[in-house]
Design goal:
Keywords: Signal. InterPro entries: CEMIP_beta-hel_dom, Fibrocystin, Pectin_lyas_fold, Pectin_lyase_fold/virulence. This is CEMIP beta-helix domain-containing protein. It holds the Pfam family CEMIP_beta-hel. The protein is built from 1 helix and 46 strands. By secondary structure, it is mainly β. The strands form 7 sheets. A 10-stranded parallel beta sheet has the order 16-19-22-25-28-33-36-39-42-44, with no helix packed on it. A 9-stranded parallel beta sheet has the order 18-21-24-27-32-35-38-41-43, with no helix packed on it.
């Protein structure tokens, strides 16, 4: 690039030795052919922009250069193959001994700082041959210069095997970290070991290709256009086996999309490529709206209790509870129905419960409440809870829980002989089976996804005559179309359940689990049908019919670039909350 500061340095002539006269008879200056320039619409596809094999520009090493005046970079050939040759490193070392830091003199080039985006992955490859009589190791590195920081950050790209006059391959992967996302300049170079700074070398077949790029936009149904707003926060759940691998982003803009019935939602920062219905039809990642117009927030852990209101309609709908609950304090929960008996027309729906210090929605000694289409995120302890075990007729439908964490302080209760189990949390903790769980999602738990925990002699109070005793033997009303993924412990745990009527687990889906799909103990008379798992079971915990094994394709097996989808499509899932969509890639958007 011609600038005032370097215009006289663009053309250099190197003579054999001092005192030798040279005569220039003819000189021409030609622009490189168009093949020598990267695609302006895809500048980050390969950070070696062109001529990585030294075959494009004759004897010109462009766009590579030497980072030292005494080191020569040239293109030479062996038969029909051209490659880059670095010579004169011994002269650079002599300067280094006089205080000049040119011990890594040789080939270099700059890469575009704007390509260092979060959630991108690159694959580096080249071949190196050291001109040495003994084996020499080398390593490709990057110098990253940040604005206002004098000392550059050094990052490793690839370590090369030791070479002694033979070609070796150097391969590595690179993911930009958060400390280099806004660099001023980035330079790639080859560093040899400390005993061989003066050894010349050859380089061939350089490439630094993008293998995975982040996404900064989502395609959603047009129905959200007047419901989701610019500046609102969205959650994308974990798409790996890590329980905490979720992301949250702000909506930057919402625009009409070319495809009828959809809008384009731009995000303030890119996200990693999640699982979609296009790439993994059975295991699409969830995306949910977290923001609500009405927000309740407590500095020291507030709680809302609906206490002893039988036959009264209680409706909690469309609000955000942030920072509610007191860790380790019994009965201090964001939403708590306590001793309400029959609450047939009571509804808890379309709320978000965020960063709760103690649980999310707790139903205790209350029957027939509808808990539907709620989003819970970042809570401590169990999340959606049936507490007493004798509750009946409550419906948990289309709720999403994500990022449930262990508590450090476990509450004790006088009603139950011992401590609660919130230090191994379940997003759905169920002590009473005669209720309904339909189409719920447990996405990222430091404990379990779903846990039926039946306690013998749970309560000492004998005056609660309106409830049925022995919840461990009560029938299961319905458990259908529920999903669990990305949990530390099992997806479904059942402890001490012996119903008098066969309990049916229908269409349960479990994947990306670290420990296993099921943990069943001291339980009988249970069966499952239509289960979908991503790994085989060592043994069946109960009779299972129609189980389907669908593996999750490993990330390195997916070609993200050759089948690039810059925008991610979503579809509404019938089993998910109103503001939760399953990620779906649209073939019509593939380039």
């Amino acid at each position: 690039q011609i600038m005032d500061s370097n215009i006289y340095e663009l053309i250099q002539m190197r003579g054999p030795n001092a005192g030798v006269d040279m005569e220039l008879l003819e000189f021409s200056l030609r622009a490189p052919p168009k093949e020598a320039f990267p695609d302006p619409d895809n500048l980050c596809a390969d950070l070696v922009p062109t001529n990585g094999d030294a075959e494009l520009l004759g004897l010109s090493p462009y766009p590579f250069r030497s980072n030292n005046d005494d080191t020569l970079l040239s293109v030479v050939n062996e038969g029909t193959n051209h490659y880059f040759e670095v010579t004169g490193r011994e002269f650079a070392v002599q300067k280094a001994r006089r205080g000049k830091n040119w011990r890594n003199a040789g080939i270099t080039w700059d890469i575009l700082p704007s390509c260092m985006k979060p959630h991108t992955k690159y694959k580096f490859h080249t071949e190196v041959r050291m001109h040495s009589l003994s084996p020499v190791s080398s390593e490709w590195k990057m110098k990253i210069y940040l604005v206002g920081v004098k000392k550059p950050i050094i990052k490793s790209l690839a370590k090369c095997p030791k070479s002694q006059g033979t070609w070796v391959s150097c391969d590595g992967t690179f993911e930009p970290s958060s400390d280099i996302t806004e660099p001023e300049r980035i330079e790639v170079y080859l560093e040899s070991d400390t005993s061989s700074y003066d050894i010349d070398y050859d380089v061939d077949n350089l490439s630094f290709k993008l293998t995975e790029s982040g996404l900064d936009r989502l395609i959603l149904p047009k129905s959200i256009e007047n419901q989701w707003a610019v500046g609102s926060e969205v959650l994308v759940t974990s798409h790996t086996s890590r329980w905490d691998d979720h992301v949250t982003r702000r909506i930057r803009s919402i625009e009409n999309h070319d495809e009828e019935g959809y809008v384009k939602v731009s995000l303030n920062e890119p996200i990693g490529r999640p699982l979609t219905l296009g790439s993994h039809p059975s295991y699409a990642t969830e995306v949910a709206l977290l923001s609500r117009n009405i927000v309740f927030e407590g500095d020291n852990g507030a709680h809302m209790t609906i206490l002893k209101t039988p036959d009264q309609d209680q409706i909690v709908q469309g609000v955000e509870f942030r920072g509610f609950g007191e860790e380790g304090v019994h009965n201090s929960y964001p939403i708590h129905f306590d001793s309400c008996n029959d609450s047939s027309n009571s509804i808890v729906s379309k709320n978000t419960i965020r960063e709760s210090n103690q649980r999310c929605v707790v139903i205790d000694e209350t029957n027939n409440v509808l808990i539907e289409e709620n989003v819970a995120f970042g809570n401590k302890g169990h999340c959606f809870v049936l507490e007493a075990g004798t509750e009946v007729g409550n419906i948990f439908k289309s709720n999403l829980g994500a990022f449930s964490q262990r508590v450090q302080s476990v509450p004790e209760t006088s009603e139950y002989k011992g401590k609660e189990t919130d230090d191994t949390p379940a997003i759905f903790w169920m002590s009473g089976p005669s209720n309904y769980w339909i189409g719920n999602v447990a996405a990222g738990s430091e404990g379990y996804g779903f846990w039926f925990e039946f306690r013998t002699n749970h309560y000492e109070d004998t005056q609660r005559t309106s409830f049925v005793d022995s919840p461990h033997s009560m029938p299961l009303n319905e458990f259908q179309n529920n999903v669990a993924h990305s949990s530390v412990e099992e997806s479904l745990k059942i402890t001490g359940y012996t119903p008098t009527r066969t309990a049916s687990i229908q269409n349960f889906k479990s994947y990306l689990i670290n420990k296993g799909h099921f943990d069943v103990s001291a339980s009988t008379n249970i069966r499952a049908s239509g289960t979908i798992l991503d790994t085989e079971l060592m043994s069946e915990p109960f009779p299972m019919m129609g189980t389907k094994i669908v593996t999750v394709q490993e990330e390195e097996e997916i070609n993200y670039i050759e089948d690039t989808i810059e925008e991610v499509h979503h579809s509404k899932s019938a089993s998910n909350p109103t503001d939760v969509f399953n990620l779906q890639s649209s073939p019509s958007l593939a380039e």
